[in-house]
Fold this sequence. Notes:
The chain has 216 residues and is an alpha/beta fold. It is built from eight helices and six strands, in the order H-E-H-E-H-E-E-E-E-H-H-H-H-H. Helices cover 39% and strands 12% of the residues.
Amino acid sequence: MAYFRSLPNLRKLLDAFSRDSRWLIMINADPDAMASAMALKRIMSHRVQDVTIAKVNAITRPDNLSMVRYTHLRMERFFPGMLPQFDRFAMVDSQPDHHPAFKDIPFSVVIDHHPLSEKPLSAAYCEIKPEYGATSTLLTEYLYNLNIRPGKLLATALQFGIKTDTANFERHFYDVDLRAYQYLNRFADHVLLSRIARSEFHLHWLEQFSKACTNL
């Protein structure tokens, strides 16, 4: 049995890229979305003129902030005035009706693992796989099928995306999520992954924990 499914439709995704196109990848930033955007940007590299990742939300969780810092992920905060700078638009780990900022943007690529929205999707390339625990799993399959070896930081980010969306494989995960995680294991930085995962608490929370213990 093959490690991952074969993806003959990937040719359709690659055909959407052209050397002179400028792409904006839009996300509602969480670990799975950020890792998936990193992977899609890696796939686009050397195939398009430029790729920018933009988030529509503020990042506040310490582990998410650590992921951005340790993986050197460059993102911009989305504002409508930036749209004319780009020719094409992509979205990962979400769908156009999941956030008001996505409304009326002509997405060419939509890749997600959440249940399919009721509103029809008009993207030229669209893959929605609710039977996957994380979009990071989907993008790992894409990298594998394209013979792209993920670098250390990308592999670590994808592992963290899978860990987060499956709650450490305690909810909504499938065999393919385990296979993707195991495949990434040979490329990821395990010390870095542990460091990101342990960054879950703000230091100023310690005062609240102290008060709670005293009240007990």
